[in-house]
Amino acid sequence: MDWIGAYRGGQRSRDWCDPSSPFTDLWDPRRVGDADDITSSLAHAHVDWRETDKAHIFRADLPGVKKEDLKVQVEENKILQISGERVKEKEDQNDKWHRVERQCGSFLRRFRLPEDANPNQISCTLENGVLNVTVPKVEKKPENKNVRQIDVV
C-alpha cells in the first residue's frame, strides 16, 4: 500500500500518483528535491503578502541572494514579478564536503496586483535576506453623492 492509500484508510482509488492519471505531470512528490533540480527550493521562494489600510506588503525570504542578483518589476501595471538568482559559491577542490543542502539557481514569483494598488509608487528593500516590497494603495476619493432629504408627511 502506498502512503496515500494508507492516509485514505487503505482505500485504493484512481489518484494523482497513478501514472495513467492526467494530473501526474502537475506535481509528483517523488520528484520534489531531486538532485538534478537545482532550482527546486528557490523556484518557490517563500513569500508573505499582507494588506493594510494603506498598502499591500510582500515579504520574501531570500537568504544568500545579493541585491545585484535580484529584480523586482511590474508588468503592465498589473503583475508584480520578483526574480533573481542565488549564485553558487566557488569551491576549493581540496575541501571535503560532508553535506550540501543549500541550493543555488534562479527563481521567479509573480503576483497579480489588485485594482487598488498604485504601481507607480512601489518601493522595496533587501535586508538580512528578506525582501520587503511595499505597494501603496490608490487613495480613494470620497464620492460626492448628491443626496437630498425627503420629508415624510
TrEMBL record:
Gene3D superfamilies: 2.60.40.790. Keywords: Stress response. InterPro entries: A-crystallin/Hsp20_dom, HSP20-like_chaperone, Small_HSP. Belongs to the small heat shock protein (HSP20) family. GO terms for molecular function: unfolded protein binding. This is Seed maturation protein PM31. PROSITE patterns: SHSP. Coiled coil: none annotated. GO terms for biological process: protein complex oligomerization; protein folding; response to heat; response to hydrogen peroxide; response to salt stress. It comes from the Eukaryota. Residues 38-153 form the SHSP domain.
